[in-house]
Amino acid sequence: MVERSHLNEYAPYTDIVSTDTLDVKQLSPDSKDESVTMIWLVAEAPNPGEFVNHWKFFFELPPKQQTVRFIHVNMTLDRRHNQNEVIGVLKARTVDYAAPDSGVHRLSFDMQLNATGGDLLRLLLERGRDKYLFTASGEGCRFWCQTVLRDLLEGRFILKKDVDQASTDLGFFIGSRRRSRRPIREGEFYQ
């Protein structure tokens, strides 16, 4: 694994605080300083009657007291002000359960550079990945994840073959008994 010397510009992490577009209230401060050992991309089971998965990331951290921990990174619809809103909010929180096991489909990516949770979150913030509008129908998490994967690839954190596989998988609806093609609906990043 490559050292993170070129990432020093991302430290310190005191500016990673909750805003209108970023919710880090449940992110433990120490997880920002810990090395990410693996990145997971996970598809949740669809809600009954729906034919779309919600996709999100988990940044795996070293175990603490024999418990595996993750930074759960999730772009979700911001329903605080209006149930019909398409504005996204990036939520990052620390969880201490086998989070990737909760999905119907999961991909794991080995880290190619030594980076902390704070390094990766800062990368997303500097690229404006916290400012996102979903489509009018509320879709767009797959496009957001695909964009983040490209950011991670450009930063040399993950391999191209992993991004290619994930991009293929993001183009499918994955249910308990079926898997079918589904176009990736593109949301929009804003300033």
TrEMBL record:
Protein name: DUF7770 domain-containing protein
Pfam families linked: DUF7770
Organism: Orbilia oligospora (Nematode-trapping fungus)
Domain DUF7770 positions: 50-190
